[in-house]
Every structure is written in structure tokens, then in C-alpha cells.
Specification:
Blueprint lengths: L1 E5 L4 E5 L9 E7 L8 H10 L12 E5 L8 H9 L45 E2 L13 E2 L1 E5 L8 H5 L5 E3 L6 E3 L9 H5 L5 E4 L4 E4 L4 H5 L5 H4 L6 E6 L10 H8 L4 E2 L10 E4 L6 H8 L3 H9 L5 H8 L10 E5 L2 E5 L5 E6 L10 E2 L4 E2 L5
Parallel strand pairs: 3-14
Antiparallel strand pairs: 1-2, 3-12, 4-7, 5-6, 8-9, 10-11, 13-14, 15-16, 16-17, 18-19
């Protein structure tokens, strides 16, 4: 096993191969506070990539309700239970990763889901946890809560599927860090399905090979964001590229949100894969739950997010979510607007930082009616 540095854990970890980071890394940020689980992203992905035989159960993109929703069933609680309780209380992770916890003769700790685990993609939808006693009023964090978690392949820096494949049919592109699967080399051993803790590699029973999210690379190569991102009606996503973690570019919106402001956090960083999809945590959920999901720094990320209206540049970066179908490689504040630029630094979008507010009179003299909504 090689020693590689995982910046999310603040230390070196074991990985089967030496890894050289790409110059830019495909990445995505989700604002969980804005997701309404409309599943438009899921449908957009499904109709684009997984319409064929053997792909019926595949959801490269899905949205599940936490804490009781999973696809496949129990994917995260199963692997967390196998890994055991690990401390997540500082910038340097001292616990075991899935590579550390691998059984003898295995590359990584994992499991293959039962076929029935894929039978209920919407299980637990809108189910909340906690109680609201009679006469109680809502406080923050909420005493009764749920939230929506959209998921795609994380295109991990230290991808478990890549490390576990005995055929080396899975590879990470040097130009953008997208993790792809060469189906001509795949022999259907399903070691990738077993290894991926996020369960985002699927086995096609008709073709007898594995399949996974391809990061919409044909669109990305043309400077456009992914299907799930551009179809999102809630504007909760932004897709672009991360630079090197030790050399963040403050003019890159993803670098700014992930490396500099640290308002967007990885999903289950303790697994050790250095996933490249990031989440702005929900502000209404108890931090203890969020800490085991998004790692150390959750409380700080929530406070930073809640103060975004006081930070013009942070507000500008978040205003780019859903603002354009093209990838914003750079951004800057120009007066009362945020401007996004492509890789050649040509302007592609300009968005006002604050929408105009129109206050209407309670009583409409012209129509002789009272307005119940005066905003």
C-alpha cells in the first residue's frame, strides 16, 4: 500500500496505488438547505444515461431523505456499523479509514448489497425523527427534523472502486479527475460494487459488467455543467473544478467555498476516499448527527453560511448556483452583481446579488380588496 495525503483528514492514509492529483478536479457543491427533493435531477440523469436493459434499477443520481432514507437500503448505516465508532473531533482524523479496517486479504472494508436493497429507492421519504410535544414551538436546531441529501458518484481522489478492481478497468482522468470504467476490461467481478462505500457503482445483469456515473464528461469537455446540475429547479448545485488543496484560488468559486471559506464539506470523510462532492450542511439539524456525516467543522460551516448576507464575496459565490449552464471557472464581484467567467476568462453570466423587493399596500384601492400577502 502506498502512503498518500488526504487533505480532508489532515494526514496520510494507505491506498493501493501512488496517486498524482490532477491539475483540476471535477467537483460539485450541494446546498442542502435549498433542496426540495423534487427529483428533477434524478429524472434528468435517468433519461440521459440509464434507459437500457439491466439499467432499470440504476440511479446514478438520487435524492434521499435523511435520517431514514437510503439507496440502496442502509448503505451508510451498514458501512458505518462495520467501521465502528470513530472520533471526528478535530482537523486531524485519528480514527480508522475503510482502507485501515480492511479484512486480511482485502483492499478495503466493504460489502455487496442484496438485490432487494435496491427495491425501494424512495424508502423513508419525508419521514422525520424526533418529537414535537403539544404546545411546543420550533427552535434551532429543530427538535423534529429531516433533510434531503442529493447524491452522485463522488469521483473520489482515492476511489475505492479503482483501488479494488483486479482488472484495473477503473481509472481517473488526469485532465479533470473524473473516474470512469472501461467496460471492455470489466469481467463483472463486482469488487467495485463491494468496495464503494457510497454504493454508486452498479452491476448490469444483462451485459454482465459494471456501470457508474460518468460525470457527464461530454458536456464538461464542452464547458457545460452536468445534467443534474443544469436541470435543478431549486438552484442548489454548482459544478466546476477544484484546484490543489494547498494552493487554492480565491477567484475559483469552488476553491473559495471548499478550501477558503470551508462552508461546503465532504460526505463521510472518515471513509478515507477524499470524495469530491461537497455539501453545505442543513442549518436546522442537530450538529451531532451532521458531524458524523460531514466531519469536523460542521458548526463553523453552518455559522459561516448563516452570515453569508454579511460577506459579499461569499454571497456572490453562492449566487452562482444555478445561474448558468456553463462552468464558471472564475468569479468576481462587480458592484451589486457577481460575474462568472469561463476557462478563458470570458464573461458568461452576470447575476444581481440582491433581488429587488416590491412592497404592496395592504388595501388595494383600485380593486377594493385587502391583500393577505403584502410582500
Amino acid at each position: 500500500m502506498a502512503k498518500v495525503f488526504n487533505w480532508q483528514l489532515g494526514r496520510e492514509i494507505d491506498f493501493p496505488y501512488e496517486v498524482e492529483r490532477p491539475e483540476k478536479q471535477f467537483a460539485m457543491i450541494f446546498d442542502t438547505n435549498k433542496c426540495i427533493s423534487c427529483q428533477t435531477c434524478t429524472v434528468a440523469c435517468k433519461t440521459t444515461w440509464t434507459q437500457g436493459r439491466g439499467q432499470e434499477y440504476m440511479f446514478w443520481n438520487n435524492v434521499e431523505t435523511k435520517p431514514y432514507g437510503y439507496y440502496p437500503l442502509g448503505w451508510d448505516v451498514n458501512i458505518l456499523d462495520a467501521l465502528g465508532v470513530q472520533a471526528m473531533d478535530g482537523p486531524v482524523y485519528q480514527g480508522k479509514t475503510l482502507f485501515d479496517a480492511a479484512p486480511t486479504g482485502e483492499v478495503i472494508l466493504g460489502y455487496v448489497p442484496d438485490d432487494r436493497d435496491y427495491a425501494h429507492p424512495n424508502i423513508g421519504e419525508d419521514d422525520s425523527t424526533g418529537t414535537m410535544p403539544r404546545g411546543a414551538y420550533m427552535t434551532a436546531p429543530h427538535m423534529q427534523w429531516m433533510f434531503y441529501l442529493p447524491r452522485i458518484c463522488n469521483h473520489c481522489t482515492y476511489a475505492a472502486c479503482l483501488g479494488a478492481c483486479p482488472r484495473q478497468s477503473i481509472y481517473k482522468r488526469r485532465e479533470d479527475g473524473i473516474v470512469l470504467l472501461d467496460q471492455s476490461r470489466c469481467r463483472g467481478y463486482r469488487e467495485c460494487v463491494k468496495a464503494c462505500p457510497y454504493k454508486k457503482v452498479y452491476f448490469n445483469t444483462q451485459t454482465k459488467v459494471s456501470e457508474k456515473c460518468i460525470g457527464c464528461y461530454p458536456a464538461v469537455e464542452g464547458g457545460r455543467q452536468t445534467q443534474c446540475t443544469t436541470s435543478c429547479i431549486g438552484k442548489i448545485r454548482v459544478q466546476g473544478f477544484l484546484g490543489k488543496p494547498d494552493k487554492p484560488d480565491a477567484d475559483n468559486p469552488l476553491d473559495y467555498l471548499v478550501f477558503i471559506k470551508k462552508v461546503a464539506l465532504p460526505l463521510y470523510p472518515q471513509f478515507g476516499l477524499e470524495p469530491n462532492t461537497y455539501y453545505i450542511p442543513p442549518v436546522h439539524v442537530p450538529p451531532a448527527y451532521l458531524r458524523q456525516m460531514f466531519g469536523w467543522g460542521v458548526e463553523r460551516a453552518i455559522e459561516t453560511y448563516k452570515r453569508a448576507h454579511e460577506d459579499t464575496k461569499l454571497l456572490a459565490a453562492m449566487t452562482l448556483f444555478g445561474a448558468t449552464p456553463e462552468i464558471s471557472h472564475y468569479f468576481r464581484v462587480d458592484g451589486d452583481s457577481v460575474v462568472g467567467y469561463d476557462a478563458k476568462q470570458a464573461e458568461i453570466v452576470r447575476v444581481p446579488l440582491r433581488e429587488p423587493a416590491v412592497v404592496r399596500e395592504l388595501y388595494d384601492i383600485k380593486h377594493k380588496v385587502y391583500r393577505t400577502n403584502i410582500t
